Amino acid sequence: MSEKIVKTIICPKCSEKSETEIICSVNGKDVPDMKKDVLSDKFFKWKCPRCRFETQLLHPLLYNDMENDFMVYYIPNTKRRILVDEKIESEFADLSDVKKRLVSNVSELKEKIALLDENTNDMAMELAKHAVERIVEKTANKTVYEGYFLEMSQEENTVSFQFFVGTEKRPYIQTTRLEVYRRSLEIVRQYFSDTDSQSGFIKIDREWAKEAFRIYKSR
Ligand SMILES: [Zn+2]
Question: What is the pTM of this model?
């Protein structure tokens, strides 16, 4: 069910040319295996057949989990906020109930899969992360460069994020009450419920959360 292409790769260490199979689209029964590989950083690993040099081979990937109604399109370093792909939209007849996300790095890809696979609302999680980020900037008095969802515990009633702070981009974990996510979920349901009905893959990230928070505050 998955789409593959063969590419010639030149090893950056020994310059050996080799043919490598690249998975550009993941679908159906292949999803569980690929999910494991993406989350464990195995998916983009490449090893030179001659000198055994290992590196990450980053390439576009369309991750399609129809069982959980979401698709994530990873395009390395894309600056786009939305991507409308008519081929994909026509291939899958009814995408109105499917969450379509665009991500530009592997950390974002992993975060989206972890959240949407558990049916967690990623828009609400971005808003919650945005709120926690501002607390971190105040308490740690450091600039936050980026942050990702880490884990959520219903039993302990907590949600944790991993931020990268300061000039050294040091990892900084912040845990907060699950209430912050629940409150964000209410905001999303009230103000941003139509976001997923538009066509195209959209970027739901830190920038989106900042803008969404601004819109929410102005109402
Ligand atoms: Zn090599």
Answer: 0.93
Residue 48 CA to ligand 1 centre (angstroms):
5
- Torsion from C-alpha of 67, 195, 128, 210, nearest 10 degrees: 140
Q: Domain residues of the chain, as ranges?
A: 3-117, 122-217
Q: Give 56's strand partners.
A: 45
pLDDT along the chain (219 residues), means of 10: 91 97 90 92 96 96 93 96 85 78 97 95 98 93 94 97 95 96 97 88 96 93
Ligand 1 centroid to residue 42 C-alpha, Å: 19
Tell me, in angstroms, the distance from the centre of ligand 1 to residue 26's CA. Answer: 28
CB atoms < 10 A from the CB of 129, how many?
A: 27
Cβ(44)–Cβ(20) under 8 Å? no
Task: Indicate the DSSP class of residue 176.
Answer: E
Between the CA of 19 and the centroid of ligand 1 the distance, in Å, is 12
In Å, how far are 69, 150, 165 from 34, measured between CA atoms? 16, 20, 31
Q: How far is the CA of 12 from the centre of ligand 1 (A)?
A: 7
